[in-house]
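I wish you would study the pair of lines that follows with an eye to the fold:

===
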Amino acid sequence: MTFRTLVLRSALALIAAAALGGTALAASDAPTQTRVSARSVGVDRVDLGDVSIGYEDGLLASRYAREQPAAVTGGGDPAKAGESRSKGASFLKTIQNKDGGWGAGDWGQANDAAASDVATASMVLLALHRDANGSDVHQAAIVKGVQYVLGAIASAPRDSAKVTTPEGTQPQRKLGALVDTHMAAMMLSEVIGTLDDETNLAMDKGFGQVIAKVQLAQRADGSFDGDGWAPVLSNSIAATSLMRAEDKGLAVDARVLDRSEKYQAAQVSEDGTVDTSTGAGVDLYAVAGSLRTNSMAGKRDKSGNKAASATATRAATGRVAADSDRLMAGFGSIGGEEMLGYMMISDSLAEEGGEQWTTWENKVGAYLVGIQNNDGSWVGHHCITSRTFTTAAAVMALGSGDWADRQASNKATPGPSKG
């Protein structure tokens, strides 16, 4: 028996003993790393020599938490998805901070009164924007929130890929150190041009600044983030924001886009097998990120990787069609990461329409409607447990159909922005 094995077995024995003694710890059989629930501890991993055991649940005991079903089998009425989405958006407006932002809280310390962070604020703004569906029903909250994000971009050093935001937040620990930058870029790529003239002008400047930061963040392999539990999702968000920026006429370095497309296409094989090394070993995250970016890259006019992107898109789409139950189960319970995965798959399938989109939409709709809390929120049961972040991601997942319809309508009949 090697020393590594001895240490690992000893650690697992301690965990088992703690469980028998009443501590809420339970080992998982995940294939790529040993995961244990740590509902009574405030750390997310422990290092024992060359053995690292990850605690993936943190402090997730919450008065808002509902027991997750053993399988992803609906329970709600998908016809009420729109109502559910609006209820979630209304909840989010009630917890907006005075500075205009929203926060997920530090790792293991999520609460509704957390200091604002850019990633969470950007997620909420996207959720409100999508729920508004072209109306001004949430405009006051959105304008105030956009101003918060723009301030965080403007106050950050120009030569850094980071924006000004708290450190050690749940999104950063789980999605990557630069997730705030990438989320801000994606948010502005959707909201830009839809508000009053003054805010639109400010967004023009901020969008250019944050897109420059996303490009600055790119790594040699074409990815954009790697310092997190599941940076595959942050990488997809970064790539998405760059393609949308180019689509809106912003200058984006062709070499950055080319490296990104090559990296994303390589994440999925023709048989649908995905590289989960940056996705915590969870197929949902890897399939969702790959499908979202490759489906967009395959339609990009200036892409030199259309064939590879199309192949990857077909493979990821096939996985969703053949394996939706297992994919939706994600890590085994709902977290903010699962909601992001649902949103990315929904966005991609909604753009194509058809029977597969209808099937997926009804399945996700039934599930999310069925697990929504009475106050309109959703709460995470692992990793990103913040009900602010998780609710925002759920609202986005439920709004993909309307968002795709609006995008198609805008391309068919372009018009002036509001203002």
Notes: The longest helix spans residues 306-329. Confidence is low (pLDDT under 50) at residues 1-71.
